[in-house]
Records
---
Amino acid sequence: MKKSLSLVLALCLVCSLLAGCAEQSSQPSAPASSDPPVQNSQEQPGPPAVEMKGDMIVGTHEVGTGGYTNVAIQIEGISEQFPDLKIRALPSGTETTRAYYARLGEAVAFVTGGATPLYLQEGINGYDTMEWGPQAVTSLAYFPHNGYTFGVRGNSGINEVADLKGKTVAITPSSPSTYTNVVTFLAYAGLTLDDVTLYEVGSSALGYEALADGRVDACFYNVTSAKAYEQESSGDGVRWLEFDPDNAEGWENIHAVSSIEIPKKTVNGAGITADAPKNLMSSPYPQYCAWASVDEDTIYKLTKAIWDSRDKWAAKDEGMNREFTLEYNLSMMSNTGTPVHPGAVRYYKEIGVWNDELEQMNSELFARQDELAKLWQDTVAAAQEQKIASNDFSAFWMEARPSGGFCEPPKSANMTPLQGGSLNE
């Protein structure tokens, strides 16, 4: 009986298997292929997750400047959000030095302002020497300057930019963007560098010192810097020269020098409040930049750290909370003429703010960098063949460089010979 039962069960199992096979054979078979199946685009695996930990160095403005303060606050917020990610600031007094550290790989990124990234990319305004030339510089994040202008002593009798004719003004050739700012300030009143006596300083902070001890009558000033508050509380006090946003001629003169400057009603700073605002000037500052060759994961990590910790660092400063926004950052990406690093693009795609227009812009700007790099090599070779003197090389390069759009240097801001004193210690 047991044998009969076992036989029946076995027959049932065989029949069941045969039925399953018949059912499968009735279905249409897929064509043979050695390729893996195509996944739905929404199911495509993204890049491996990047761990928010490690160490990195970012070149910053020198201690005492507004740029350094902004970045220090952001680094503090990042450390609270990502305690295993250690970011160290590497302060330097000039834009060129900060860029040089990053170029050497001493810093993964650097912070600068104004049109400096464009100057680096194009090899102009101080970067047109044989030691520099066009650089593959990219952006990560943009933030707006709270406001800058000429600072003068409060008891000087200088009340507007036009009053500076014949006076002594600090100038910083080693920081092309700050140098350009001085030119734009003067242009507002129809003045040029020839209308003032120029006093060369090695950094903005040294310009502040020169103003405080009377060696200059005016200097570029970030009104939220620590030195601005020191000058305000000094016996001489401080006065900020203003730029009337309704002065169409003045702003036309400014934009003939630099197209990225905008009017800024500043409501905080040394001696400045919402009840007593000042009409100053602004452009991107601080802006985080890096060489295109820096590892994509590293820049993705830094970009993510900056924005994902915004609630932390914005809570520490009212002005940064109000104005350091993702919206401003995105608007500047298409208005400054330099591409966004692939690591940063990866983050912006991840949060859904990168679009086809930005993608096309980025491709075109990277293509321009490639074009400039090849042209630079050809120009250097031609200069050597024609025995062009080093003093004449800048003009030789500018004649060869293709112009257009954002890529034009300020008309008055090329590095001209300086007169007057010097303070380079």
---
Amino acid sequence: AAVSPYEVSVETEYGYNIIRVSHGAVEVTEADCSEQVCVNQGAITDDLIPIVCLPHHLVIQIEE
């Protein structure tokens, strides 16, 4: 059976990111960084381009 979509909150001294995992895709849905590049990037579905939030020192990459 397929895993239901879920969210993970990552909170560090630099700030927080809410990460949503659903059906082979990962995205940052919310963050308290100023630029919002990680949120505006949208979902990734492969290992070509990671999601990076530089202010929070966060990198999200799908591994095949």
---
Amino acid sequence: MEVKKIVILVYKLTGGGAERVASLWANGFAERGYDITIITTTGRNEDSTYNLSSSVKHMVIELPISSRIIKGILNRIGIWKLYFSHKLRKVLHEITPDLCIGVLGDFALQAYKCTRDLNCKIINTEHNAYDRPEFVRCRPDIMKMKFHTNKKFDRVTVLTEADTKVPGVPKENMIVLPNPLTFEPMKNIPHKEKIILATGRLDVWEVKGFDNLIRAWGRIAKQYPEWKLMIAGTGSVKSKEYLVRLTEEGQVEDSVLFIGFCNNIIDYYKKASIFVLSSRYEGFGMALTEAMSQGCACIACDFNGRQREIIQNDTQGIICSNDNYIELSDAIKRMISDGKYRESCRAFAIERSKYYSIDKTIDRWEHIFQTL
């Protein structure tokens, strides 16, 4: 199928990884000459965290009401969804896209309902793993989308090969599309400081495994007094207090720094010698590919084979079990103590990260177009 006009539907262009991915796709498509419109439910481009190319059209469909309280009430009673469907149908019939790409939520389903009388293909993009640990709950409507509603669409993209092997997934229209790389891979590795970096929201510390990371560091920190563990991310006072208490219990409060939200996270990737993805559960690991691209020697806890798809072997980094702080501690110790191995990992990590470049991601999209 020849695809010229593409519409991407996403809630917003602030905050999370999926929203960042949507902006990268939009800009990448525009670079290739596609006619791109991105539709959000809030915020103009100037209010967005992730900027769009001037070639990308940005439309906002939102209730013409300023009060958040009233908007919340209308959303709960279903008025918002009816309003959005009505407006979306009108917009899509004006644009007449060849393809609609839904990002998060039920955008793909809305597009499917609104384009039944148009010659328009619909792709839903999944941004979380199809299987999860027991402590990570998944809402019934999301499970219905993943295992049933997704059968309606022309294609459904998933982040890893591991997702295609989960029992019950609708494999017939499923295709693997890993997330694109946010930053250009380094050409030359700069001077690195004795920093171990981790990133993620503190409120989901159990998912991100920050408790395990702090305990792992506590086992070896005294052997490496010049090294610091930095955790980038925001969260509630309660969450931060809990993690700080763990550093105190492990007597590493002086070597663990909570640096908050960082607009300039790339600067920390450039400075850090080591990056650790300590998650018990991770659908992909954008932070991991970002860190690899900036010359960090990386350690990742693997969730059912997903992070092993990124770090394929020990030349590119170290893979650990996803809930074993002793194993994680040993990996950090190896990466600190073996300078030659650390330097080698950096070089191979940069090379591996190129697989996730936006150019190669758009190539993968164009392959999907050929299968429609």
